[in-house]
Amino acid sequence: MDQDIQKYINALVEKEQQLRDSIPDDSDKASARAAELRRLEEQLDQCWDLLRQRRAKRKAGEDPGEAETRPVDEVEHYRQ
Q: Which end of the chain has fewer surrounding CB within 10 Å, N or C?
């Protein structure tokens, strides 16, 4: 499962880089690209959070399968 999450993270990072490298030719496309980048960043944050949860549970001797994807609002606003 961790490897699947890591593969998904890698795919999101690749897509994020492609979006950042693309040059929009008008402001509507720039706005759409910015919104898509934000969604990608949120998905990445959720994936990294899930992976950290799984690793922490494993280290604590708990079942990493009990880790769950948290809502974007929770992941984006907690303090580290």
A: C
The pTM for the full model equals 0.84
- From the first residue on, what is the mean pLDDT of each consecutive set of 10 residues in the chain (80 residues)? 94 92 79 90 95 96 96 82
Residue 45 identity (one-letter amino acid)? D
Contacts of 67 (CB under 8 A, 6+ apart): 50, 53, 54, 57
Q: How many domains does the chain have?
A: 1
> Domain containing 7: what range?
2-77
Half-sphere exposure for 19 (CA within 13 Å, toward CB): 19
Q: Which of 33, 18, 32, 78 is nearest to 52 (CA)?
A: 78
